[in-house]
Amino acid sequence: MGWSKRVKLSVSFAAILFFLPFHHETSALASEQVIPMGHSIGIQMELSGVFVTNDVLLNGDNWLRAGDAVEQIDDAVISNLKDFESVMATATSKQNVLKVKRHDSTLEISADQEAVKRLLPFLKDRTEGTGTLTYVDPKKGTYGALGHQIVDSSLKSPPTFRHGAIYLSEIEQIKKSTPGTPGYKISTIIADEDYLGTIQTNGIYGIFGIWNDAYKKVLAKPLDIMQPSELQTGDAEIFTTVKGTDVETFSIRITQIEDEQFHFVLTDPELLKTTGGILQGMSGSPVIQEGKFVGAVTHMFVDEPTKGAGLFLVTMRSGEKNK
C-alpha cells in the first residue's frame, strides 16, 4: 500500500457508537465452519480522490464543504495529495479554478493561489482506524471484520476507496470507558508490508475481503456457526485483544435475543478492570456460546459501557456473499 511503518492508531471509525438497522437474513448451512479471530487490526483505505475534511472559506462567499472532492485545479487532474502539492508548487497564476464535486453536482470555484495552498491541512486522500477481526473462512480464503460499516469521522459518510487493507496491530495502551465517555485502544500497526488481507467491500455488516495466506500462523480451529434460534440467554464469551497482540477469552452474559441481534453484558472481572467496559476498536470481537460461533460485538451503550449488542454471524456473512 506504500504507507509508512509503525502507524499509530488511537480512534476507531465513527460508526461503532451508533445502532444500525438490522435485516433478517437466511441461515447458514449447518455444516459451515469459520475460524473465530479476535485480533486487533489497523485499517487503511486509499480514498478515490482528495476530499475536504472541514468547511473552509476560500474567499468572499466561496466555501468548500466537508466531503467535497477536489477533482481538478485549472487543467490538472487531482487524484491524490501528491498531485495537489505538485500542482501548487509549480503554479504560476495568481488565480486558480477548482473543479469540485459536491454530492451529485460539479462546481467551479475561483480563488487566489494562496487561499488554495492553505487548503492542504484540510484535505485527505486516505482514511484509517482500528477494529477487530471477526472471522476467516479457510475454504473461501476470505475474512470479515467489524460487523458494521466504516463511516469516516471527518467526511461523515462511508468513504469511497480505490484500495484498502487490514494489518495486525499491537495494543500499547487502553483508555478506559466510563459512563458517557467511550474508551478506546491506542495501537500500532506492526508492519504495513505484511497485510492480513485486502478490503473488497465496506458494507452495513462490516468490511470483507481476501485473506492473505501468509498469515496462517494466526489461525485457530474452525467452529460451527450457531443459528440464531440456538442462542440462549446466559453465559457466553468473547475473543478480543486488550494487550499486545494476544487474543484472550473473556466472559459475558447474553441478556436479550431478538430476530437480528442480541444484547449482552460484560461479566469478566479482569476485562472490566482493564477496560471499564466495551471500547472503541472492540467492534468485531467474536462471540462464542457452547463451542459455537454466535456472532460479533458491534455496539456499546454509551451511558452503560458494560452493556453492548451483537450481530448474528449468519447475518454478518451475508455482507460477504452479496459483495
Automatic annotation (TrEMBL):
The keyword Metal-binding does not apply. InterPro entries: Peptidase_S55. Residues 100-323 form the Peptidase S55 domain. The keyword rRNA processing does not apply. Coiled coil: none annotated. Keywords: Signal. This is SpoIVB peptidase S55 domain-containing protein. Residues 1-24 form the signal peptide.
